[in-house]
Specification:
The structure is a homodimer of 476-residue chains. With 476 residues, chain A is an alpha+beta fold. Chain A is globular and about 75 Å long. The first copy, chain A, folds into four domains: 9-94, Uridine Diphospho-n-acetylenolpyruvylglucosamine Reductase, domain 2 (2-Layer Sandwich); 102-219, Uridine Diphospho-n-acetylenolpyruvylglucosamine Reductase, domain 3, CATH 3.30.465; 221-341, Alpha-Beta Plaits (2-Layer Sandwich); 346-432, 2-Layer Sandwich (Alpha-Beta Plaits). In chain A, a hairpin with a 4-residue loop joins strand 5 (102-105) and strand 6. Chain A has helices at 9-17, 26-29, 52-65, 119-126, 143-149, 156-159, 197-200, 234-247, 260-269, 297-300, 304-315, 328-345, 360-374, 407-424, 440-446, 449-462, and strands spanning 22-23, 46-47, 68-72, 90-94, 102-105, 110-114, 131-132, 166-172, 180-183, 209-216, 218-219, 223-231, 252-259, 285-293, 320-326, 347-349, 353-354, 379-380, 383-385, 390-391, 395-397. Chains A and B meet through strand 9, strand 11, helix 8, helix 11 and helix 16 of A and strand 9, strand 11, helix 8, helix 11 and helix 16 of B.
Chain lengths: 476, 476
């Protein structure tokens, strides 16, 4: 078969995949060409291999015939990396049927898992062993997608990101066509040459098709303590973080800043949620704190609620002005309701930035000044994971605002903020969403030429025909 | 200047480096050409740049002139990767003078550090901030060397390895000649394309010269508890580990198995150390346990000694037969004395292997059987980090043994054990020592062709002339 000869594509691929594995009717394809929070693309067909062998054959065929693919797990990504563009050039390779294999090793505290398994299904399989995979996200992605995006989540400060919990990996490559790169070890210590799996982590699927992984998992916490705390001012947020890391170090599992504006939006639009600070009105800023531990209270003497109470008591009047200790579930509902609440307020310009923790206060102050001076009609409704430097400096453009929403101006605002984050504070314009068509221009703007050159040479090595995914990491 | 024209090498390099930076007298070079535990090589000169600019110039000059380099930090490596071979082809590029820059960011809990800084000097600079870099090693390596070998150490289970604590990195590349790859961010969340610094971690210096890094650091523990425990049998060691992870999860900082033979060697050869099990004689096997926490006892209610005592009490008679709770320092002295003690017993054949924890018991039993059947004159004196799957299955060949020590036979024994570890138990033949001339043949034996091919293509990309280091990761 020659590379240009794609006329037998439907026949050949549907022969490999069978009727459930090869979808080409537009209705069948619809949900695969539309992303979680962005527009629609075009595809000739969706490929849904049912086995590793099928997947390998499909990749080999596409590599041999110059057929481009976009990889899709649970299609929860936010940067348009998992759906085809409008060109019609891409087939969708969905891994959703590659989800049979979940093998728990409780003694090794690890699990072998197919790439198409979702986070929820993985945790359901781990739960009987008292174990869980601690990457805590708002969505329910596939494990392959989580590796390709190196997701972090709200509890990174305690449990690390996907990379830090990845022991092994298997991938199918475009070059050599359909070759398997088998790095499926379950080892915590293994320094036998370069750790090749690291190349595929956070690569947005551009370097190879991740098909299976070995993950380190953790013991389910036996106790936790949660509080919503009002720091005296922004500097006090960082003081509070330092005290907690020093005095409650191993237990600090979340430290989520919430601006008064974001809290107000939640209370306004989500009727089921009441103001936890009812008597005192709304604070300018608050922090959702969580400690957790797998140590049982009786056995260890450790009482996290008591520890948190005592720690906060000492800070009253100096570092913090108020605190509500509550049921974790109730306080987390506030945090989880923010995104939805903000959408009610107008057009959302969302950010997924991060920076050194020591820069967060200065950045926020500068960003608020910038917004007030240049874009006074925007409402800043920020929140963020201070402990890992993450910040969702989200902006709402009210429907009634003057000027009305303009995509071009939104882009200018986005760039102004990214410049502040990246150029001034050496931060990141994509803390955990990864890179895709949605933010590729920013990758090119902020990534040093030496890095782009190397990333592009790597991509040329692994996908010389540029068939895999929509993201080119090399020089423009 | 042409590539082949190296006649002006001494003049040119000494002009860049000055008299302290360019050593060529054999006496001056002696300590740079001899490794920590292996033989001596040859070099024309040792290059000791005093600044990043000098280092960059030197690398650029060597790349342009086809001059091979071997990188050296504190020269504590165990696989001969940091000293020249006998060919005389390599100059030594020592980073020991690149050690001025140590900038602590207590709020970000991170530190920026030059590659030549030693672990001890780094910890001395962190200590006033209540912080430390928790990779716990027997040696005092340089930070650059620790990154190049991705060291793990005795407390990996709590604090992770170097990779898991590496936030940023800067390297000088051979291609483009002397180019700086600047990845010096201090971010915990940053998913803006492939994480290029990962390529250099654990690469034995073959992919580039690491010159500076940003490390995540941790709060110094405020309390700890240590015990030496006698498990009922080998299966009970893993049961004990699981109970401790479940009930004392966040605190478990070390779990070190020590065989009776290794303990006996310590007691025999290190007079200052007394038998902690004096009354009961020597156990067949024991485990050194450590819990630590940054939470103060009074504030948190957490009492690690009490927690450890209670946890062990419940296991008495079923999982464990005996336990000594002691001053951590005293019990760790036993562990740290093993290597020296073993040397007194004869010629040492040391191992640095690892495997899934669930394989450790079976492996040990099989390995003991193998040794008894085929090499009965050897004494097995094993110990290891069970919690991270690490195992030093060390063998002593007594001076008086029949047959007398033969290097070829030692090699056969080594291979037989590695086969058992890697081929049967999917383990590693180099858990934390990395790859160098000393074990390169094993890299070739046990690494899949697809991995070697990719690692070699990467190396060709970054060092097309193969000038950097003694290790070629590609196909033989």
């Amino acid at each position: 078969m020659r590379k240009s000869d794609k006329t037998d594509l439907p026949a050949r691929l549907s022969a490999i995949l069978g009727p459930l594995g090869y979808l080409s009717a537009p209705d069948d394809c619809a949900r695969y060409v539309r992303g979680a929070r962005y527009g629609e693309g075009q595809t000739l067909a969706v490929l849904r291999p049912d086995s590793h062998e099928q997947l390998q054959q499909v990749v080999a065929w596409c590599a041999a015939h110059g057929q481009a693919l976009v990889l899709q797990g649970a299609n929860t990504g936010l940067v348009a990396a998992s759906t085809p563009d409008a060109s019609g050039r891409y087939l969708v390779l969905s891994l959703e049927r590659l989800r049979r294999h979940i093998v728990v090793d409780p003694v090794n505290r690890s699990v072998e898992v197919d790439a198409g398994v979702t986070l929820q299904d993985l945790n359901a399989a781990l739960e009987p062993h008292g174990l869980f995979f601690p990457i805590d996200l708002g969505a329910n992605p596939s494990i392959g997608g989580m590796i390709a995006a190196n997701t972090g989540g709200a509890r990174l400060i305690k449990y690390g990101d996907v990379r830090q919990n990845l022991l092994g990996l298997r991938a199918v490559l475009m070059e050599p066509a359909g070759a398997v790169l088998d790095l499926m070890t379950a080892l915590r210590k293994n320094n036998t040459g370069p750790d090749l799996k690291q190349i595929l982590v956070g690569s947005s699927g551009a370097y190879g098709v991740i098909t299976r992984a070995v993950l380190q998992v953790h013991c389910i916490p036996r106790q936790s303590a949660t509080a919503l705390v009002v720091p005296r001012d922004q500097a006090a947020v960082l003081q509070l973080l330092q005290v907690l890391e020093r005095d409650c170090g191993e237990f600090l599992s979340a430290f989520e800043g919430i601006s008064g504006a974001a809290l107000q939006a939640v209370l306004q639009h989500i009727p089921a949620i009441a103001n936890p600070f009812a008597a005192e009105g709304l604070p300018d800023y608050c922090v959702l704190l969580e400690l957790d531990s797998s140590a049982a209270r009786e056995r260890s003497g450790l009482d996290l609620e008591q520890l948190l109470t005592r720690t906060l008591e000492d800070l009253f009047g100096e570092v913090i002005d108020n605190a509500v200790l509550g049921r974790g579930q109730d306080l987390w509902r506030i945090r989880h309701a923010i995104s939805e609440a903000l959408r009610h307020q107008g057009k959302l310009i969302a950010f997924d930035i991060s920076m050194p923790r020591s820069a967060l206060v200065e950045f926020r102050s500068e960003a608020l000044t910038l917004m007030a001076a240049r874009y006074p009609w925007l409402r800043v409704m920020d929140f963020g994971h201070w402990a890992d430097g993450g910040c969702h400096f989200n902006l709402v453009w009210p429907h009634s605002a003057e000027p009305p929403y303009q995509a071009g101006l939104a882009e200018e605002i986005r760039t102004a903020l990214y410049d502040l984050v990246v150029l001034r504070h050496r931060g990141s314009f994509s803390a955990e969403h990864g890179i895709g068509p949605y933010n590729l221009a920013y990758y090119q703007r902020y990534t040093a030429p030496s890095s782009r050159r190397l990333a592009g040479r790597l991509q040329n090595l692994l996908d010389p025909q540029r068939l895999l995914g929509l993201t080119w990491f090399g020089e423009a």
